[in-house]
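G.,

No rush on this.
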Amino acid sequence: MARIPDAFIDDLLARSDIVEVVGSRVPLKRQGKEYAARCPFHDERSASFTVSPTKQFYHCFGCGAHGTAISFLMNYDRLEFLDAVDELAKQAGMEVPRDSQPRSQQQQDDSRDQYSALDAASRFFQKQLEGSDKARAYLDGRGVDADTRARFSIGYAPDGYSALKDALGKDERRMTLLDRVGLFSKNDRGHVYDKFRDRVMFPIFDRRGRVIAFGGRVFEKDDGPKYLNSPETALFHKGRELYGLWQVRQANQKIERLIVVEGYMDVVSLFQFGVTQAVATLGTATTPEHAELLFRNAPDVYFCFDGDAAGRRAGWRALESVLPRMKDGRQAFFLFLPDGEDPDSIVRKEGADGFDTRLQQATPLSQFFFDELTREINLGTLDGKARLAERARPMLAQIPDGAFGDLMKQELARLTGIGTRSATPAATRPPVRSTVPVQKRSLVRAAIAILLQQPSLAINLEGHHAIGGLRLPGIELLLELLDLVEQRPDISTGALLEHFNDREEQASLHRLAALALPGDETSWAEELQDAINQLEKQRLLQRLEELQSRPFSQLDAADRFELRELLNARAPLRI
């Protein structure tokens, strides 16, 4: 995938007005220097969602949603990153560049040709459905009406080995295209034939509504594999796509939940009965990419599997993928169906209301996590408790910082009687020397908070290069922020925050950026310079302690000279 240069992102955000972007979708009211609204990402009665025109970012004090114009388009319009950049660039009248090796015109034309070939195949399969009594009777028997067939562009691949090839493979170029998008197979003798034969066909759409692959279902269970998917191609990667997501987006202005099921017909049947939030993984376990895509589109995700051992294994694999993405405000649930049942059969028997009732009784992720880990462990013994702690701790460490992660660790402590370990055991922590001031943590935090209010204040800052190597929490982050501003003096708060997207520091930085600091630009500049001066003095004292802690006989001439200089410099210091 082509990468967009950071400098372009900075320029794009600088030219875009986040108030205009958000205001065209959410009614904003001016409140002092900022704008406020009811948050579009969670239900609330009061306006805790703010948009800052000076900082060029948004923040919700209720649910914690935050970001730039790009991330707003991703979360509100449910766009991928590149699509959000394209949309914003179009509004700003800018052309999106690609890094180092841009796609050639030939490559772009080739992609368009592949999409066209898949679209032609989809229309061919739909046409064949119209003429197949067998296929129409099958769908009638499954209760799939004409509107639902049209919604999902369902078709039929005729029996025989060359129906598609004969219809669309008019010349060598078209044959090559159809082969590259996964519609042909080849036998040992090199003979090319249609990959999909005598199957109900389900086109798979990408997030722009373009056909990128197919899934084919047999009529009878003994006619080969139940589902046959397109192979991986340049356009299709099954670990990144969800069947039905395009249709869910079209059917729901705001997606409150997503229901993950296993088969194409499960998705189609749920839609048929009014449950329009169902998607399916494409014959593979839930991947981390699936998990991120699910939560990007909905705050609540329900995994619906068979209740047998295989279904529970599938549920556990899904849990492993979503656990590192369980930020506060997100929820995951697991619904295991009775033996012999699937979402298709349940919704036929019980309707949408019955299926919804089952979802309301689904097992929360927290319960499923501890139920599975303790299934074969005796918590009545010390050994059992130790084993649970050993298994659970590495997994809980993957949960992002926040209330959910804290509560999960508290539950582990309750079950085992073992408190959570600190990151650094007390016995191994370096001793705190009396010369290091107590306010050291707040100095770094204060400097970062001021920088996020007005990044340009770093341009005329003196002495910040001297604080490198200072052993204080957050010092590396502060230096990184200073370097970013030095490289791009005109960078805005929003663009600065964009550089930390998907990094663990992101949430903390957004919270600091959302603070309303007292004072103005002049007083902030003075406070920032003072903080840097204090940190520079601490770096001097730290180095002095390092040299003094070594035997004098082990110091070389350069070390001894530096020690004398530092002792002379320390005399007038007042910290």
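When you get to it, here's the other one too:
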Amino acid sequence: MTVTEQAKYKLVHEGRPYYFCSAKCEGKFSADPQKYLAPAQSSAAATDAPAAGTIYTCPMHPEVRQNHPGHCPKCGMALEPVLPNLDDDENPELKDFSRRFWWTLPLTAAVFVLAMFGHRLRWMDMGTQSWVELVLSLPIALWAGMPFFVRGWQSVVTRNPNMWTLIGLGTGAAFVYSVVATAAPQVFPDSFVSMGRVAVYFEAAAVIISLTLLGQMLELKARSQTSAAIKSLLGLAPKTARRIKDDGSEEDVPLSHVHVGDSLRIRPGEKVPVDGEVVEGSSSVDESMLTGEPMPVTKRVGDKVIGATLNTSGSLVMRSERVGAATVLSQIVQMVAQAQRSRAPMQRMADVVAGYFVVSVVAIAVLTFFAWGLFGPEPRWVYGLINAVAVLIIACPCALGLATPMSIMVATGRGATQGVLFRDAAAIENFRKVDTLIIDKTGTLTEGRPAFDRAVPATGFDATEVLRLAASLDQGSEHPLADAIVRAAREQGLALDKPENFESGSGIGVRGQVGGRQLALGNTRLMQQIGVSVTSLLDQAEALRAEGASVMHLAVDGQLAGLLAVSDPVKASTPEALATLKAAGLRIVMATGDGHTTARAVGARLGIDEVHGEVKPADKLLLVERLQKEGCIVAMAGDGINDAPALARADVGVAMGTGTDVAMNSAQVTLVKGDLRGMVVARKLSQDTVANMKQNLLFALLYNAMGIPVAAGVLYPLTGWLLSPLIAALAMSFSSVSVIGNALRLRQIKL
């Protein structure tokens, strides 16, 4: 069965979404995915370009996918690679159409001149002229126009009427009529005779074919520009890396030969080959090609570096951690490609219209033919034929079908160059509607790299022992606050024990055993759950929270052992981003697992009035649902595993690229840099893209609404205007090219 991205049943397998018509089909697929996946559809590294693994899809119907070139069974368009190849030669269809156009253009010109001026120059009698036009037109119709007739016939066989149905009918009718009029003129009544012969229209068929070829050439060239963003991303990756061998010597190796754990040297002016961590040296790295951030970022030992970014000054030695398809660059390319091939909700209206469009146009053409033949002036049936052909040719459903896909392709590429990744077209369309933004604190408003401040022991405990026990337990946690505590303990040279029976409390803390003692580390809610009083250190905790620090309580064997304070500085870009979003009319809400006092302190510093502290993941989810019930369009911004449920439930989930993979997989938008200013960019891009799509749809609808009646001759009784099929062919080609050209304007918008 045919399914689309609006299908109810969806499953994500190896980072790619799959859609199903029923729960039964989804269950079969999940039980054995490889049984249903072609080998060619296996994911490949974005930096590779395996021809055998290329997947082809239709720009108008992204659900059409196959592992070899061909034509879309629905609209007849040439399929194009989901991921473009940097080594690709010129589009093969563009080469084919160009050859057919240029080789037959002289013949088209000759036929046109004969038809327009032959009777005036009297080079030959009119009967002979018809035969000459036939001979000149045969290569045009039977060779240059053959792809149109083949696709038109396929559209009839598959019951998917489309643009080629109309072109095939129009040019075919004009050509076949003219052949019969030339070879057997006696079968026509005298009313068909004009200037000494039965009127023929070889020049109409020839010029329409040539103009359609020209229009397709222009369209294919314009469409190729929509994938420029992905090609530029693919071109960022270096071809080689300088690997340091075990004996200390160095060698240049192809990027595909780099493995996880390799030591790599990056010299000044070279690109970082893969994702990893700096183990030696310091330098400034330009990350603007992936994040849109213009200022180079200083990298020192322990800092993470992203593949394809540029080392501007000092020499670095890094340890590779992600290679091939696992790198940030590869994931960005995959996300952009996926978003570009998704269908915008706005396209649904166009799909409904297009579904009935071609059949309606054929009916109008038939009605035009008989209306002119029965009621028009002489030669009535000739007028009927010409106007019917004009109706068929000018009605181009292609412009309607391309209206939103082209805008989406350009917009997602534009966003990627600014560090904003949209998962699908729906995210682009919905972002502009957001009026409420829920923001997590740690890693979203703050740096996400908190530093340990101090330990405050309770009576009978030592501060160093409190830190050691907390760090031992936190070795099992992925939270940034836990990482700060563990890092501080190791810097002080404390011997850490291995935790046992470790449990994560879903945003309120962690529990486990260390050295045979039962430990619990978390906020006041966790202490309440296990029945531990925090009254003895309440004043110290409130004082630390008032300074903006996150405070955790440590309980040992059911007794309060002390407090640990961790400070996480606010990102320098956060105040500017929040001010811009508030100025745009967004309601800002902060939700964090930190204590109420800490949350209020950070909120006051940033001008956030609505603050929720000690919030568990389930509470964030409930907060999103409550606001949605109030009629709000909610965006949720977060970076951690505990944010994933709320990110998935929000109207638009926004993940920080510096956060966890779970958060990014749950969100519809990812900010590569983890900078909230990307929200401003995403909102502006959403607004401009939707406006662009509306312009395209309006243009396509108005074009056909105005063009078809004129071609049918509705204005003839009032103005005497008739639309030549030649002008109709030119207008038909112009409509698609103009829609693509308007979409390409999104590459120039100021974000």
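The chain has 27 helices and 29 strands. Residues 677-712 form the longest helix (36 residues).

Enjoy the weekend,
O.
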